Amino acid sequence: MIMVDFTRLKNRLNAWLFIAAVYFIIWSALVLIFPQAMHSIVVETSQTNLVFWDLIAIVTIILGLGLLVAAFDPFRNWLIMFLNLLFHVGIIVGFVVGWFNGIFTSNFLPFLFFNHFIWLIPLVTGIYLVYKRGYQADKILIETFNESDFPLELFETVSGKNLQELSEEQPVLLVFLRHFGCPFCQETLLDVRSRRAELEAKGFTIVLVYMVSPAIGQEYLEQYGMDDMEQLSDPESIAYKRFRLNRGNFRQLLGPKVLYRWAWLGVKKRIFFTRVAGDINQMPGLFLLRNGQVVRQYVHRTSADKPDYSIFLSYSE
Description:
The chain is 56% helix and 9% strand. By secondary structure, it is an alpha/beta fold. It has 2 domains: 6-139, no CATH class; 151-313, Glutaredoxin. Strands 3-2-1-4-5 form a 5-stranded mixed sheet, sandwiched between helices. Strand 4 (285-290) and strand 5 form a beta hairpin. The protein starts with 5 loop residues before the first helix and ends with a helix. The mean pLDDT is 87.
């Protein structure tokens, strides 16, 4: 696996964000202090009202201060970069719409280029690096928490039993959930609840794995009448990595299929996105264990995939 030197890239990103922040703060201050001068320099005075520039300047100086904060730790403060990106894209789109409607003229192009267009490059690059860093780190964690170094004995359920001994007693169906606020996680809980009797009749022990504390997990599961089931609390997502479940990429989390099923669940089942409780990017999966070995599995290609429980119900010893 090719490793990226994120420390060096972070230093470059720090510099770019600092330059952008200083530029926006100075530009906004000049517009507010010398509105007439800046108004006449940038565009024709007959095209826009001074209030327009005041509003743009105020928003820009706020975003500039935000970039100043983000410059110290862009990987942690990626949301500030994302909001800045949305602002610049919004201004550019607004200009295009205004130009087609005769509101703006080509005299706005220098302002558009120097204040918005050129800053898309560091912002898009920064957001991509944040995404790439998290995905690469995830691969490293999957290799770190491997099967040989992290045997099933290390993973204890809330009741105090470990996965190895549970799987020696009878087959164990591990249900790795996404964060509790995810509509697909809620759908999975409803599906498991509806199939619980069928699965337990096959002799399976169902273990629900989640990324919050046992207290929070218990609170959520009580809403589904499933708080009496075996549970594995995994706030650090170590068990997820042990079973090679990665954090999702853009297509897996927000692709067309995911968005369609989000809408479908909302309209048909009244299941909606709620408060995040866990890693919002973590992918789910189901594994059937017997005597410490995985004998069946279902790994989601996207967060919207619906598990095929017949894969597990067809298992026989």
